[in-house]
Structures are given as C-alpha cells and as structure tokens.
TrEMBL record:
This is Uncharacterized protein. GO terms for biological process: protein targeting. Belongs to the FliR/MopE/SpaR family. It comes from Pseudooceanicola algae. The keyword Magnesium does not apply. It comes from the Bacteria. It is found in: Cell membrane. Keywords: Cell membrane, Membrane, Transmembrane, Transmembrane helix. It holds the Pfam family Bac_export_1. GO terms for cellular component: plasma membrane. It is a multi-pass membrane protein. Its main location: membrane.
C-alpha cells in the first residue's frame, strides 16, 4: 500500500510539474484570447479556461521534454514561457484590434462615433461594438477553442519549450501581423470612407451653389442613415472576411 501511494505521489509530482510549465504559456495566452480573455469575463472563468486548455495541451503533447527543475530553471521557464504566451496572445488579439480600428474608422466617417460609445467595457463606437460582438460570436460558433488548442500545439514546434525565441524573428512576425491588421481594418472600412468622401464632396458643391442653404442640418441625417444602412447591408460580408483571415492565421500562424 505504501509503495502504491509512493508511486502515485511521484507520478503526481512529475505530471504536476509538466502541467505547471504548460500553464505558464497557456495562462498568458488565454489572457489575450478573444471571447475568453475579454475584460467583461470574470477572472474565475479565465482561470478555468486556462486550466482546461492546459489539460488538453498536456494530453496532446505527451512527449514534451521539460528541462531540469530547480530554482534557476523555474525562473528561466517562468520568464520564457510567459513571454512566449504573451506573444502568442497578442498575435491573436491583433485581429480583434483590427476590427475595432475598422469600426472606429467607419464611425468617424459616418458621424456615428459618439452614439452609444460606452456600451462595452472598452470605449468603442457603436459600429465597432456591434462588429466586435458579432465577430466574437462568429468565432465561437466556428470552434475558436479547437483552433486555439491547435495554435498552442504548433507553437511548441516554432518556439520550443525552455528556449527564448529569436528577437529578430519575433519582430518580423509581429510587424507583419500589425501591418496585416491595419490593412484589414482599412479594407473593411473602405466602403464607409468612400461614401463619406462622396457625401462631403456633394455637400461642398451644394454649399457653393446655394450658400443660403444650411447644408449641414440637411445632410447630417442623410449620412447617419447612410451609415446605418451600409452597416446593415455589409455587416455579413465584413464579418465573413474577418473570420476567413482570422482562422487562416490560426491554421498557419508561423
């Protein structure tokens, strides 16, 4: 009986050490994970998500080589694995930030930037808040948790356990994601910007032709209604394009 308890205790110690090391990367990643890592999600839920992802990654990576333990070894793993988890989380979070940027551009172009601006925890315009909530719901429907696990598993091949990633590679990878995020934001907001440009040019021509007409009071309702109509017509295409690029990144992130 004592031998059985001793073997069980040794197994728990070894597996617990592996789980703790995996949790360092997964926990930092889960804090930035869309939908699960939002500010409105309670901390207990985030902790449960991190522990669940840790258990799945630990089961899917049975041959994970853990460096020798010890005070210095643990501090090295704590720093490197946490940094890698933050990098992975920020890479995914950039797609949500790109959608937020697109929503802000749409709102500024259609004079809707201050309507219901405080609807969420983050100060977003109404259009940005609607698009982000819709995108997060769409990501959950398409199995974000499954893709997140695959993303984490692939990260152990690109960024091995216990090794600091190359700074040049991380900088190149991150700058490419930032550029892609802004390109996506501008492409999604392009119809609103074009309509706003045409609208302002038209108002300028009318104002030159009829200076006595208060074109601002006449045109303000038009651009507001036009922005809402464009959001109604193009929201499906916007969310579809965002979901395609988001899951394409999760499928081949490196």
């Amino acid at each position: 009986m004592n031998d059985l308890l001793a073997n069980l205790l040794n197994m728990v110690r070894s597996q617990g050490w592996v789980a703790a090391v995996i949790l360092l990367r997964v926990g930092a990643f889960a804090s930035f994970l869309p939908a699960f890592g939002e500010q409105s999600v309670p901390t207990r839920i985030k902790l449960c998500v991190a522990l669940s992802l840790t258990a799945i990654v630990m089961t899917a990576q049975p041959d994970l080589q853990i460096p020798a333990s010890g005070y210095r070894g643990f501090l090295s793993l704590l720093a490197s694995e946490t940094a890698i988890g933050l990098v992975l989380g920020l890479g995914v979070r950039l797609f949500v930030m790109g959608l937020q940027t697109a929503g802000s551009m749409m709102a500024q172009a259609t004079s809707l930037s201050q309507i219901l601006g405080g609807a969420g925890v983050e100060p977003l315009p109404a259009i940005g808040h609607v698009l982000v909530i819709g995108a997060l719901a769409l990501a959950m429907i398409f199995g974000l948790h499954v893709h997140a696990v695959l993303y984490l598993l692939m990260s152990y091949d690109a960024m091995p356990l216990g090794q600091w990633p190359d700074a040049a590679d991380i900088a190149q990878w991150g700058s490419g994601l930032v550029a892609q995020s802004f390109r996506m934001a501008f492409s999604l907001a392009a119809p609103f910007i074009i309509i706003s440009l045409i609208y302002n040019l038209t108002l300028g021509v009318i104002n030159r032709a009829m200076p006595q007409l208060m074109v601002a009071f006449v045109g303000a309702p038009v651009i507001t209604f036009g922005g809402l109509a464009l959001l109604f017509l193009l929201s499906q295409q916007i969310l579809t394009v965002w979901a395609d690029r988001f899951f394409a990144f999760l499928t081949n992130p490196f």
